[in-house]
Amino acid sequence: MSPTANSAVRDRLRIAIQKSGRLSEPARALLASSGLSWRESRDKLFCYGESLPVDLLLVRDDDIPGLIADGVCDLGIVGRNVLVEQAGERAEAGKPEVFREWRSLGFGACKLSLAVPDDWTWEGPSQLAGKRIATTYPNLLRGWLREQGVQAEAVVLNGSVEIAPRLGQADVICDLVSSGATLAANQLKPVLDILQSEAVLAGPAQPFGDVRAELADLLLRRMDGVLRIRDSKLLMFQAPRDAVDQLMLLLPDAEPPTMCAIDGADTLSLQALCHGAMTWQRLEDLKRAGARGLMVLPVERMLA
Ligand SMILES: Nc1ncnc2c1ncn2[C@@H]1O[C@H](COP(=O)(O)OP(=O)(O)OP(=O)(O)O)[C@@H](O)[C@H]1O
Ligand SMILES: O=P(O)(O)OC[C@H]1O[C@H](OP(=O)(O)OP(=O)(O)O)[C@H](O)[C@@H]1O
Ligand SMILES: [Mg+2]
């Protein structure tokens, strides 16, 4: 299917997200926080956008890069691991680059790691020469092996990769790791990270040439606002003017504060957007350094 043939007839934006899995809920939540709402219930495969002409396609995550490549959808929310793997697959087959990562989204964090049996003494990548490596990500693995100048065999499995060494299918594995619990349960240990992954917004490599460009820009601006204030709080307090420098050292994650003088000029009232966790411990440290009347407020929306 040609991308242009399929996408030329649309004046609505279509975003593919995972139908059901780790990225489904956070992807929906991010889009909803960006002001999108849909008519259909969540078990449908297609959700018609109500607040904006932006529709959703609910699909298997592995299908998302291909749907963008074919012009069936315009954007997608997918793990970087899947996107980079399929980009590599296309490059290997001599196909042009048609999709790329537009934004990292700060959820679905995991690593693609090499893991070896617990009883191995790890000496480095050269130890993998001639070994069989079970993985769902053969392109990423082969690319890494090439960079290392190591020749090894990729054994491609679509699931239950961790059990392959025990079944004698492979010597080591290259799979996604987050807590490490699955590796530990299978007597494996991680020795190297090949890719740091998280959910990303994927889009076409070339900009849209029609109304979708404006829609995508609007959506990106809103998403950037949502991502920027995620985990952020507005901190308000008062402090003696001569304590402010010291106090700001305790707030390395704060944007430059807004300050105004009260009580003549000796006391300042400050407000600062802070991007890290505002724990009781931090508030107590600020109080000890001279801050008074500390208040932490949630931030709902931000438009830069
Ligand atoms: N253990 C993990 N912790 C955090 N994120 C993970 C973990 N495993 C996978 N992910 C991320 O979440 C994405 C989706 O994982 P999930 O297990 O839901 O996919 P799936 O089983 O392939 O689903 P689908 O049915 O859509 O094909 C992965 O591609 C990866 O980016
Ligand atoms: O480090 P951990 O926190 O243990 O997570 C790692 C596991 O998570 C993923 O599998 P998932 O649970 O999605 O199962 P699946 O591969 O069968 O879909 C991944 O493929 C690992 O098996
Ligand atoms: Mg999948």
Automatic annotation (TrEMBL):
It comes from Thermomonas carbonis. Its cofactor is Mg(2+). NCBIfam families: hisG, HisG_C-term. Gene3D superfamilies: 3.30.70.120, Periplasmic binding protein-like II. PANTHER family: ATP PHOSPHORIBOSYLTRANSFERASE (PTHR21403:SF8), ATP PHOSPHORIBOSYLTRANSFERASE ATP-PRTASE (PTHR21403). InterPro entries: ATP-PRT_HisG_long (IPR020621), ATP_PRibTrfase_cat (IPR013820), ATP_PRibTrfase_CS (IPR018198), ATP_PRibTrfase_HisG (IPR001348), HisG_C (IPR013115), N-reg_PII-like_a/b (IPR011322), N-reg_PII/ATP_PRibTrfase_C (IPR015867). GO terms for biological process: L-histidine biosynthetic process. Residues 60-209 form the ATP phosphoribosyltransferase catalytic domain. GO terms for cellular component: cytoplasm. It is found in: Cytoplasm. This is ATP phosphoribosyltransferase. Residues 231-300 form the Histidine biosynthesis HisG C-terminal domain. It catalyses: 1-(5-phospho-beta-D-ribosyl)-ATP + diphosphate = 5-phospho-alpha-D-ribose 1-diphosphate + ATP. One of its GO terms (molecular function) is magnesium ion binding. Pathway: Amino-acid biosynthesis; L-histidine biosynthesis; L-histidine from 5-phospho-alpha-D-ribose 1-diphosphate: step 1/9. Pfam families: HisG, HisG_C. Transmembrane segments: none annotated. Keywords: Amino-acid biosynthesis, ATP-binding, Cytoplasm, Glycosyltransferase, Histidine biosynthesis, Magnesium, Metal-binding, Nucleotide-binding, Transferase. Feedback inhibited by histidine. Belongs to the ATP phosphoribosyltransferase family. Long subfamily. Catalyzes the condensation of ATP and 5-phosphoribose 1-diphosphate to form N'-(5'-phosphoribosyl)-ATP (PR-ATP). Has a crucial role in the pathway because the rate of histidine biosynthesis seems to be controlled primarily by regulation of HisG enzymatic activity. Its main location: cytoplasm. Its EC number is 2.4.2.17. The keyword Amino-acid biosynthesis applies.
